[in-house]
Structures are given as C-alpha cells and as structure tokens.
Amino acid sequence: MTPTLLTLNYDVLSDILGRISPRDAAQLALTCRHAYTLAFPRFLSDVSLGGLYHKTSSSAVSQLKDFCNFVLAPAPSWHGPPSARLDALRSLEVMRDAVRVRQDGVWTTDASAVALLSSVLSRAQNLRKLTLWGSEALFNAYPDFGLSSSASIHTLVLGGDVAPLPALAHAFPTVRQLIFVGGGVCIPEWAFESQPVDTDVLGAWRGSVERVDTGFPILPLAVPARRVDIRNPIVSDVDAVQCAREFLGRTRPVVLSTVMSAYAAAEEVGTVLGLAASSLRYLDLVGDRCESVKDGTEWVQTRVANALSLLPDFSLLGVSISVTPAFVSVLDTWKAPLTAPEPPRPDPPTTVDFAALARAVAEGAPSLRFVAIDLSAAKGSSDGQRAWFRVLEARSGPPRRVVRVGEEEGRAIAERMRGFDRYD
Q1: How confident is the model at residue 177, as a pLDDT?
Q2: How far apart, in Å, are the Cα atoms of 384 and each of 107, 300, 373, 419?
Q3: Superkingdom of the source (predicted)?
Q4: Alpha carbons 158 and 355: distance in angstroms, whole number
Q5: I need a labelling partner for 9 at 20 to 30 A (CA). Which of 86, 106, 287, 346 fits?
Q6: In this structure, what DSSP letter does residue 225 have?
Q7: Is there a contact between 249 and 222 (Cβ–Cβ < 8 Å)?
C-alpha cells in the first residue's frame, strides 16, 4: 500500500496539524471524511469573527450566528462525541462588527447575537483565550453576557470600548492573564479614576489574575498580579508618573516590564517604582528613544542606578536594562539640501565599560544578584554591545563584585527570573 499523509502515526499527524494554519487545515478537511475528522479541530481551534476586511456575501453578525449555531449543534457520530465542535475551540476573537446590525439607519448591537455568543462561552470547555473588541456594547445589550462562562478561559484580551472591570470580573472569574490592547482615544475613561474599585466587586480576580499586560495604567485594577507589563512609554510628566506609580502600588508586581523616557530624571524613575519596591523581584526597564551610546550609558549609570538607590525597601534580585533608538522625522528626510551633502563619516566605535555600569547598578540595589545591560539599539552601537553579569558580595566590604557570563547563560537566568513568584 502506498503510504499517504493519513497513514502516519496519530502523534505525528497531530504535530503536523499543529504547525499548519487554520485556513490550510480547513482546506485539508474538505478532501475526505478521514481528513475532516483529523483537520477540522485544528480549523476550529483559532477563530476570528467579523473584522474590517470581512467581505462575505452575508453580514458579520450572520457569520457570528452561523458559527455559534454550528458549534452548538451536535457533531455527527463519525466526527466524535456530540460536543466535538465545541471541544475543538481554543481561541476566539470577536470584532466589533460581529454583533452590530443596522436598524432605521443607525448601527446598534444585536442582543440575540450577544446572547448566542454567551451560550457558546458557557459551553466551550476547552476555550483558553478570548478576545473581545468593544466589550462594553456586549454588556449593554445583554447584561448577563458571560455569566457561567467556561472556567477554562484563562486569557482575556480587551480592546476598543472596554466594559467596566466589575462586570468583566463577574463574567470571567477564572482569568489569569488580562491583556488590554490599543491606546490613545481607545483608553477607557474609567482607567484613570483615582479611587480604586471596591476589591469585593472584583471577586475572584484577586486570587486568579497572574499577569496584566497593558499599554496604559489602569488605576481601578486593584488586584495583585505576579507580572505586570506596561508597553507604552511613561513620559516625563507629573500626571503620567503618578498614574504609573499608583497602578504599580495597587498591583504590586513581582516581575515588571516597563518603558520610560531615556532622559527621565532618577527621581521620576524612583517615583514610578516606589510603591512596588517591596514586592518587586525582577525589573525589565527600557529607556525610550535614546540618542546615542553615550546617552544610553548615562541612562544606566546616572539615572537608573541613582533611582534604585532612592528605594530603601527594594528587594530586587534581577534587572535588565535596555534602550530603544530615537526616531528620525520622515519630514527631515524629505528636505532637499541647499548644497551637495558631504559623504557621511563613519562614527568612531564607542567603547562601553559594561562591568562599571553593572557595578554602579548593583551598588544602587544591594539585594541584586543579576544585571543585564543592552545598548545595541542606540545610535552608533554595535550588535555586540550587551552584557550579562552575576552580582557577588565582596569578600571584604564594598564595592560589590560583578562577574560577566555568556549570552546563553545570561538569557537563561533572565528567563528564570521572569518566572519568579511572590515567595522566590
């Protein structure tokens, strides 16, 4: 018998199917019944409904209803148990237009579509990740949205007009990762309310949320999180600094990844970290828009090291410090020179004493055991301008000793420290 793809061992087939896209899995599923039973679960594992480029013959809300009715209907016996379709669903993304209909010339939310979606969420026992764009409209149209949702939903991604936190916590109590996407005008008005939400109404989130990933501080989110990521740069502004400080004080992360202006004063960096200092074990700090290697060196030695020394209750064990390059205006590149430009002169290579920088940082935080410094993104640097160090206690008083380690070992240490918990 001529061997075919379907004659392979099931474990091998599963590995292959896990590597192909859901679209390709759908094409494979259409070839024969045997292929259908193998490939269709992969097609249903990662589903996105609606979206800007939705161009089918029916509307986006019809697409959502058809999908929900399909997965809620019993699967044929040759496909597996009746719940086989729902069991295959691992990740679901719902765009804004997937629940919107036009009535009397006005766009509104279809409550029946939201109720149908809520039914899917309550029965999809293997659903791990849920992405909702415009969740506020879902709760407004159907207040019971998400109630009795599957306990398997561990990652909740929120974008657009986000529903109030108490409603989300009540609907999805088992969430471990909260991810807020978007920024600017998409930031919900309640995100900067100084009064924290009553911790009782956040319910199980106080014990379940492990990670918060956001582009902006969310002051009402007063729940402890093992890890916090603030993606957007914290600018040198009193309000921005205070908002970040309050947010970190309320989440008390063990691991923090954040971005600040590479020219922020040491006092501003210290202010941001101040309320989280006692819980923080690992810090990933990025200096935003660094002009040169020299400025990057100053960012590490003068600002970061001094900022750490301002925090007496610091229990930090590891820190990773890096920079992002400064942006060049597109308009500047369009300006025609009045005279013929001189040929560019290569900048002389800038040497960096990474050991001295690591010692300065280690002196600022006596609890430190590991320092990573990466200036390779700064202008005039090379890819090799990064280093990793173990910090050791000196045998006879200060200064503390730093021992450089290789890249593989350094990255392994950093990855292990990113997994720190409150008791590490």
Answers
A1: 97
A2: 55, 17, 11, 26
A3: Eukaryota
A4: 42
A5: 86
A6: -
A7: no
